[in-house]
Amino acid sequence: QVQLAESGGGSVQAGGSLKLSCVSPWFTYSIPCMAWFRQVPGKEREGVAAIDFSDRTTEKSTYAGSVKDRFTIAKDNTKNTMYLQMTELEPEDTGLYYCAAKYSGCGSGALPPPASSFPRWGQGTQVTVSS
After folding, report:
1. Hey, how many other C-beta atoms are within 10 angstroms of the C-beta on 18?
2. Kind of pairing, strands 120-121 and 71-76?
3. How far, in Å, are 19, 26, 63, 124 from residue 72 at the CA level?
């Protein structure tokens, strides 16, 4: 089983930045698609960003429209870690952020794949942005 562990959440003021990390000891090409999701109480889990590395020579990233140009997803194979660099944070970015992995590619869509397509999840890390 793929195990995922998020860290880096916290409380910041609007306009601030945070960098989330997701570590997996099984960070290999057998997991060609990973993503970040967020959830607030009473709402569905929302895809924030995804990174596809099923093509071993290139990576493809997709973002939700609300975070595009503010968030950056990246991975470091040498550290078995995926990151989400978040800048210009807004109160609407508040939520529990999850790391997720799937055993197939992210697909060709312009947005992150749906949560239902990811079988492996971390426990989440809380991000709170105050105005």
Report:
1. 21
2. unpaired
3. 9, 22, 8, 18
Give the whole-angstrom CA distance, residue 75 versus residue 78.
Answer: 9
CA dihedral sign of residues 21, 78, 121, 44: positive
If one counts every other C-beta atom within 10 angstroms of the C-beta of residue 16, the result is 15
Average pLDDT estimate for 41-69? 92
Q: Which of 39, 2, 52, 44 is nearest to 22 (CA)?
A: 2
Residue that has been written with the tokens 């429209």 in this structure:
65
pLDDT band for position 28 (50/70/90)? low
Q: Interior CA angle at 59 toward 54 and 61, to 5°?
A: 110
